[in-house]
Amino acid sequence: MSKKNQKSGVIAVMTNAAKASGVVYDCGGELYHLECLRLEHGDDEALKQLQDFYKREENLSPANASIRVGQFINDIDRLKTNGFGFQQFRSDIKTSNSEYTGNLLPC
After folding, report:
1. Is the separation of the CB atoms in 104 and 94 below 8 Å?
2. What is the 3-state secondary structure (H, E, C) of the chain?
3. Rounded Cα distance, 34 and 39, in Å
4. Within 10 Å of residue 69's Cβ, how many Cβ atoms?
């Protein structure tokens, strides 16, 4: 690989890493306030607020808003414990896809 291609590859990896880490920064404030809401007022109040949000913003029925809220809170809790295994997903794709030519970001 030429030095020019090597440099381009490093820049691409750095750019992708910056984009990926930007998501953490962008979402951090909302996750912080959600966690504060849950700690300060309890899950029942957080669930009520989220249910009202989904009814209003997504025009969901009360029953469907409750389901949506439950799934959302469960997913947030799972993210907090690394329960999805996204890093492993990335590694598995790299390992199983012989045509994969990219690199895992330095995460």
Report:
1. yes
2. CCHHHHHHHHHHHHHHHHHHHHHHHHHHHHHHHHHHHHHHHHHHHHHHHHHHHHHHHCCCCHHHHHHHHHHHHHHHHHHHCCCCCHHHHHHHHHHHCCCCCCCCCCC
3. 9
4. 21
* Token couple for 57: 């913003």
Residue identified by tokens 């607020």 is 49
**What is the full per-residue pLDDT of the chain (107 aa) written as tens digits?**
565 555 565 566 678 888 888 888 899 999 999 999 999 999 999 999 999 999 999 999 999 999 999 999 999 999 999 999 998 998 888 888 756 556 666 65
Distance in angstroms (rounded) separating the CA atoms of residues 24 and 31: 10
Output the six-digit token pair for 82: 């690394």
Distance, in Å, from the CA atom of 93 to the CA atom of 64, rounded to the nearest integer, reads: 34
